[in-house]
Amino acid sequence: MHFLVFQLVAPLAAWGDVAVGQYRGSRDAPGESALIGLLAAALGIRRDDDAAHAGLRDGYAFAVGTVEAGSLLRDYHTAQTPSRTDLKGRPHRTRRDELAVPKHQLNTILSTRDYRQGGEWVVAVQALPGATHELAALQGALREPRFLLYLGRKSCPPAAPLAPHVIGANSAIDAILGWLQAAGSSAKLRSLAWDDRTTAGTAAHLSVPRKDRLIRRKGWLFGDRTEYVALLAEGN
């Protein structure tokens, strides 16, 4: 069995959670939809290509090893925007178009966004039957991506190369530990998260619901899935 293993390291990352009102939270590790988006960007797949995104969703399983979840950074925003009524009949494809209304039609909105700062994760990708791309092709795309890669938001580019490698292993955790050893890293995994399609190689200590099963990327429509988590000892 083979896995594609790569790292995600950045000063800031944002792993989207369920958005309520103007609050945009962040999980402490990337979920399935974030990893599909990362691979899609590397391959040059556009957001409106639903079939290509569905192929990535159905063709691969993921495991995420957390080396460092990072600390929480909360960013408070104020912004101006016109109401939908005032925008009716006006072109507003860009932010400049949106603000090109009389000043009295602009309203102030408040929003809060969470980030993880100083995080480090190692991801294992497992190809399933019917996978649309060989793991070696995904590896090449991550090394030379077609579109800009970022960790959840455009303001969160990687701080280090992803260093993708295809590794033969019996399980995702063995592949991740093998990648760390080959990289000469002394880092320890704090946890491993996966779904029921992944050959994890370890027992779960808990399961949690996540609403990040991709349904339609362009419309930001996501469904529910169950994520399994192993809390790992320092000696791994």
Map the helices and strands.
Elements: E1 2-13, E2 15-16, E3 23-24, E4 26-27, H1 32-43, H2 50-59, E5 60-68, E6 71-82, H3 84-87, H4 95-99, E7 106-127, H5 135-143, E8 165-168, H6 172-182, E9 191-194, E10 206-216, E11 221-231
Parallel strand pairs: 3-7
Antiparallel strand pairs: 1-7, 1-8, 2-4, 5-7, 5-9, 6-7, 9-11, 10-11
Helix pairs in contact: 1-2
Report helical residue fraction: 10-25%
Identify the overall geometry: globular
List low-confidence stretches.
none
Largest sheet: 9 strands, mixed
Helices and strands, in order, run as EEEEHHEEHHEHEHEEE
Rg of Cα set: 19 Å
Beta strand %: 35-45%
Record field, number of beta strands: 11
Helix segment count?
6
Assembly of the depicted chains: single chain
First-to-last CA distance: 21 Å
Nearest-integer average pLDDT: 88
Query: Helix/strand-derived class?
Result: alpha+beta
How would you characterize the overall build of this protein?
- It contains six helices and eleven strands.
- By secondary structure, it is an alpha+beta fold.
- The longest helix is centred in the N-terminal third of the chain and has 12 residues, at 32-43.
- The chain is globular and about 65 Å long.
- It starts with a strand and ends in a 5-residue tail after the last strand.
- The model has no long low-confidence stretch (mean pLDDT 88).
Q: Key features?
A:
236 residues; alpha+beta; nine-stranded mixed beta sheet; 11 strands; 39% strand
Concise overview:
By secondary structure, this protein is an alpha+beta fold. It is built from six helices and eleven strands.
